Amino acid sequence: MAPTRTTHLRPRPRRRRPVSLVVAALVCAATAWVGSPAAGASPTAGTALAGAEAAPATVSASTPAAAGPVSPALVTTTAHPGNQVALTFDDGPSPQYTPQLLQVLKKHQVKAVFCVVGEMVEWQQPMVRAIVADGHTLCNHTYRHRDLTTVSPAEIEADIQQTNDRIRTAVPGVEIPYFRAPYGNWGQSPAVAANLGLRPLSWTLMPGDWELPGVDVLLQRLRDGITPTGVVTLHDAGGDRQQTVDAVDRLITEYKAKGWNFDLPSR
Questions:
Q1: Calpha distance 211→28 (Å, rounded)
Q2: Residue 12: phi, psi to the nearest 5?
Q3: HSE (CB half, 13 Å, CA atoms) of 160?
Q4: Among 145, 147, 235, 249, which one carries the catalytic annotation?
Q5: 106 pLDDT higher than 60
Q6: Pair 163, 121: CB distance under 8 Å
Q7: Could you write out the DSSP letters of every residue in 129-177?
Q8: Which helix (H) or strand (E) holds 40?
């Protein structure tokens, strides 16, 4: 499927801590973002491209961690065909906006993927447990949200493993089926992630919620860009995400009324 492309400059405000994520935001501000490469495209360097206390999620000791290798092809489709769309949220968890998104998703009985940053996981372990307890899926989004364009495979592997370790400290034994490179700059990470059992999860639409265009504009961008079996990337951390929360609430209501389903990405 040809991806829906969106291009925005990303003056993305970042949280005050951890400090290294603030540095990452400075890189984002000068980066033009576009749609993901099509599924099966060569996984070379991409162009373009923060909780209430919750009871620990119970994960069966028999729950398997994803075991590789798996395909290194970038995932840009839902698990099922037809009028399906997958919602994914990057850069969290956030103590303010992730709980609101969880409430919206629970209200509509929709499952999503949360692409979490290792440093944020350390800060917000109860929020990670809340995500898993609500039945959502986790995605490894690196430890410090660094650009992987020129990072060696050995360093990428260490980063992915460190982030997985932090996630499983919060939720022992949890499955982590996906990996997403910050900014869509994949470098050599698809092959490394696949060898560790994580599918590289990309997108077909990133509507630029960090621009804070207003709920109506953001919702219209979503309407204009969503295609059957598409994967949408939004953000639950990294700045004011109230518009994202409100737009997602309205989007799910509208699309369910039109007969669409909200699916997970393909595995």
A1: 12
A2: -80, 115
A3: 29
A4: 235
A5: yes
A6: yes
A7: HHHHHTT-EEEE--SS----TT--HHHHHHHHHHHHHHHHHHSTT----
A8: none
**28 pLDDT exceeds 60?**
no
Q: 235 an active-site residue?
A: yes
Distances (CA, A) of 27 to 30, 38, 90, 186: 6, 25, 16, 15
Question: Whole-number mean pLDDT of the chain?
Answer: 82
Distance (Å, whole) CA 267 – CA 178 = 8
Cis peptide preceding 126, ω within 30 of 0: no
Q: Is 90 annotated as catalytic? A: yes
Which of 256, 102, 251, 116 is closest to 182 using CA atoms? 116
The 10s digit of each residue's pLDDT in 128-166 is: 999 999 999 999 999 999 999 999 999 999 999 999 999
Give the pLDDT confidence score for residue 86 in this predicted structure. Answer: 99
Phi, psi of 122 (to 5 degrees): -60, -40
